[in-house]
Amino acid sequence: MSLRPVEFEEVVAEVASRLVGAVAQKAWCPLSRLAYLELRVPGKSVVLCLCAEGELSRLSVAEDRFPTPGEPAPFQRWLRQELTGFKLQGAHYLEPSRTVVLEFDREAVRRRLVLELGSPGGLLLLSDNHRVLMLSGEGFGARRNLYAGAQWTLAEPVSEEALAKGRAQPSRLEVQEADPLPKLQAAERVLGQKDRTSRADTIRRRLAQPYRARLKRSSRTLEKVRAEAARGPEAEKHREVGELLAQNLHRIKRGTTQVTLTAYTEAGMEEVPVKLDPKRTPKEEADWHFHQYRRLLRGVETARHREAELAREVAHAQVALQQIEAMDGAALLAQVEVLQVSAGEEGPKEGLPFKEYVGHGGARIWVGRGAEDNDALTFKVARPWHIWLHARGLPGSHVVVPLEKNGEVAQEVLLDAAHLALHHSGAKGEPRGEVSYMPVKFVRKLKGAPPGQVTYAREKTFVVRMEPERLERLLKSRHGEPAPS
Question: What is the overall mean pLDDT for the chain?
């Protein structure tokens, strides 16, 4: 669970006694209910963690911080703009409303950073007259009827019964004498690792969910296709009956429902009973069996090709799931942008500004949906070290290959992404084309430029000869899209 009331009292008291006078230097807001504030005290810097995320809620000293995905959130920009250079003047824990308030001051200008711990919780930055400058937390503003410019008031207090129950819980903060901020550091030991583990598990689940869905869907379809592919003997039986009827047309009377005919096989003569449709003539009956033979034969051939495709899809999904399961906590947290999708949007990510394809080795490849979505993908979702691709000199989608920090893109993945860049550009259908690529940090948006239009530097360019089989594999890998039959 989150920090208990007595624990919040202890950590806030430590902030008030040991950090007053510290200067705010930097701020980060990687997630909607999580912010970090770097405070400079004589001789060192301290990074406070302010979390309003349910059972992970806390005020602590961060051992490390989650990376900030893509373009900084508005709340992060406001924190940096409004708090940088301000001195911490006080800290208060208002227990009845479950609220932490940090007060800052610079040249008679006051700012308040508020951590509300209700459900849902949230973060607020207030002006000196308690007006909301900016707030952060999904659903938080609507629940509290707060918005930029609104007058902030304390949340409704919890009941006396809840207060008494909270006060009865003992503190779990085990201080260590060597710690310069023992209470705040103990608070991080209580919840920090739980936070990282919980979010890593959520990222793993969300990364794996599309592959699990594809595996389930493809496996179910594969069973049906295999049953269809196994109908060869049934087709052959229709051929044999058709030939037997054609050889004995003169012996069969119209309107008969069953006849026994003699077949000459390698094993000798065999009496074969044949059921007839009385509405058909003997020739029509023979033709019907030949038609069924040809129909089933075509179906078997198609099913065998589809069976091979589905087997590859199943194997691909299994490999991708194995790779995701093998990712350690650091690698998972490097994909923190996945947490920006709300829980209700797990699964096929049609609400995101990109389509996701699966490249060589399970690598994810993101393709912008349109001009405005291209901007969102490049400047809000992608991170500086991700690889950005575009068809050179042509209108088209932005393509991003997400990587771990300091990671390198495999040549096969780069070629996969280049195929998608050309396919989603003016070069669609052409046998070859040029593709430029570079890290996202070298892509810039020109002021006043229309959506999707960018400039970039330090690009590398190569000519791609389109491989139809590669492109077909990539298009079939798109999450949430049915594979072509």
Answer: 89
The arrangement of strands across the sheet holding 44-51 comes to 58-61, 44-51, 34-41, 23-31, 87-94, 99-106, 109-116, 122-126, 132-136
Residues in the chain: 485
Per-residue pLDDT at 330: 84
Domain 5-172 has CATH 2.40.50.320: no
Residue 62, phi then psi, degrees to nearest 5? -75, 130
First to last CA, the chain: 49
42: tokens are: 């004589």
Going from N- to C-terminal start, the domains of the chain cover: 5-172, 228-319, 348-476
DSSP 262-303: EEEETTEEEEEEEE--TTS-HHHHHHHHHHHHHHHHHHHHHH
Q: What is the residue whose two structure tokens read 């052409």?
A: 430
pLDDT (tens digit per residue) in 52-82 = 998 999 999 998 888 876 667 889 989 999 9
pLDDT band at 291 (very low <50, low <70, confident <90, very high): very high
Token match 């912008």: residue? 368
Interstrand relation of 455-456 and 443-444 (parallel, antiparallel or unpaired): antiparallel
Q: The whole model's pTM is what?
A: 0.60
Backbone φ, ψ for residue 407 (5° rounding): -80, 165
Judged against a pLDDT cut of 50, whether residue 422 lies above it is answered with yes
* CA-CA-CA-CA torsion sign (76, 77, 82, 85): positive
Q: Are 38 and 27 in contact (CB under 8 A)?
A: yes
> Which H or E element spans position 41?
strand 34-41
Q: What string of DSSP letters covers 7-27?
A: HHHHHHHHHHHHTTTPEEEEE
The structure tokens listed for 449 are 């430029």
Query: Would you state the pLDDT for residue 372?
Result: 87
Query: Above 90 in pLDDT, residue 268?
Result: no
Q: Residue 264 above 90 pLDDT? A: no
Q: Which residues of 116-133 are buried (b: 16+ CB within 10 A; e: fewer)?
A: bbbebbbbbbbeeeeebb
**Residue bearing the bigger pLDDT, 342 or 17:** 17
Helix ranges (H only) for 145-281 are 160-167, 182-229, 232-247
